[in-house]
Amino acid sequence: MSDFQRISPQQANQLLEQGAALVDIRDPQSFALGHISNAVRLDNDNLPGYLATANKHTPLIICCYHGNSSQPAAAYLASLGFDQVYSLDGGFELWRQQYPDAIQDS
């Protein structure tokens, strides 16, 4: 797969229950205040390390604030060889509204 798909929070939740990986590309302060459980914060600084250890066959969900910045990030990660890449529509803000119990802070 050389592209990504946009998915709803409900679809993302199903994928997470099936073992998908989740990366959050928001800034460190926002991530620390709250993020989806088991999310890994990803930025340019830790990207090489993440790429070195990530399983490119595991479905990968990209989360940002509102579902906009995650789309180019998802396209980029798909271009690096991840099999299944998804952008979370509505981002963290919509997830937080729909799954408030699945939020943790650092």
Which secondary structure elements does this structure contain, and how are they paired or packed?
Elements (H helix, E strand, L loop, with lengths): L3 E4 L1 H9 L3 E4 L3 H6 L1 E2 L3 E2 L5 H7 L6 E4 L6 H10 L5 E4 L2 H8 L4 E2 L2
Parallel strand pairs: 1-6, 2-4, 2-5, 5-6
Antiparallel strand pairs: 3-7
Descriptive overview:
By secondary structure, this protein is of the alpha/beta class. The protein has a single domain, classed as Oxidized Rhodanese, domain 1, CATH 3.40.250.10. It is 38% helix and 21% strand. The chain is built from five helices and seven strands; from the N terminus they run E-H-E-H-E-E-H-E-H-E-H-E. It has helices at 9-17, 28-33, 47-53, 70-79, 91-98, and strands spanning 4-7, 21-24, 35-36, 40-41, 60-63, 85-88, 103-104. It has a five-stranded parallel beta sheet with strand order 1-6-5-2-4. A two-stranded antiparallel sheet has the order 3-7. The longest helix has 10 residues, at 70-79. The protein is globular, with a radius of gyration of 12 Å. The protein starts with a strand and ends with a strand.
